[in-house]
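Lab channel / #folding
Pinned by the channel admin:
"Please post every new chain as: sequence first, then the structure tokens as a reply. Keep commentary short and put observations after the output so the thread stays searchable."

First post following the new format, from NK:
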Amino acid sequence: MAAADQEPNVSAVRPRSYQDESYLHGFLGTVSDLQKAGVLQDVVLEVEGWRFPCHRLVLSAASPYFRAMFTSDMAESRQKTVVLQGLDANIFREILSYLYSGTLQVALDKVQPLYQAADLLQLNYVRDTCSSYMAMNVECFNCVDLYKFADVFSLKAVQLAVQQACSLSVNQLTEIISHDELDVKHETTVWEAVARWVQHSREDRLHHLPSILPHIRFSLLTSDDTAAILDHPLVREDPVSSGVIRNVVQKGNPNPEPRQGMFQEVALLPNRAWGANEILFMNPREGKYISCSYKLEDLPLASAMTVTSDNDICILETEKSEDGVIVFLYKYNHAENKWEEEGGPPIIREPENEFMFYKELLFEVDETLYDLLVDDGRPLMQMRKYRKYDEKV
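Reply from TO:
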């Protein structure tokens, strides 16, 4: 047989595999487009009352948590709507965006709840990314809060980054814990940071404790928290430190303002029923509320209410008199749980019968409070402003 007629040696040609990068990216893009268009979705995930239509296949491929949920004999595998507990709706929206796009958006104000959600849903890439982000963004204002979070979840890289704060001088530590911008949810966290700093080099630092303690805002602590600090070995064995705490508690803290991380957005719902003496402070995201009751003589009857950019709760109270209507401005004192009159002497407004059907509005723009009287028939009836709450114009 001639050479040209011989069969080719197929075994000598090695097979190769080819990867279509455009297909991989295009496939994920197509899945994302299907999600945006609401096509072929076969399950609804409900988080804090919000409904998120999704694809079981995509969820199962991305998360072992969902894979176990949808491929086992669990009841959720047969349900069209699955309620997820222990997740924040806004954070879950970010998680879904990542699952369908492969892109993760991380910021300091949401990195901790994002990590917690990823931990629950077993998303390793999200967990690792959040951990690295925290380790790279340790600052003076957030080091205390990050260390406590890292300790709970055993994030060694974050702990190592935060522990560098233990090399702070006493002046640097004092400056940090004096800031309103310190990002902590509870004042006990500040004490824990101070105790950790002292214990890092006890012999050299213990004598600094009495000068540091006055910068802890004991007015933000409960009596049980203060008692626990007094019983801490660092304080109990040092009569000077113990005396400092008792003196601060007795005299009151010169700076009772809550710190940045202690604030939360709430909706104020005053009970306007006749004779009612309560205001509801509601957290819409968590669906929780606090009812604050007062003696009738201590609770002004608000005709308008607002919350300023400084987180001050301000209300207007109107009272009839022979000369017209007297308007008082009150601000809520968080530390002492009482209303205090603000803005000097009250305003005397024209007789009420001239504004029989008006609606009163109170709001803030650039540190100035505006009191508006409006009516459906007339766009603006009267306006007054309070500049920095202490001067009426």
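NK: Residues 168-260 form a domain with the Serine Threonine Protein Phosphatase 5, Tetratricopeptide repeat fold (CATH 1.25.40.420).
TO: also worth noting, The longest helix spans residues 21-37.
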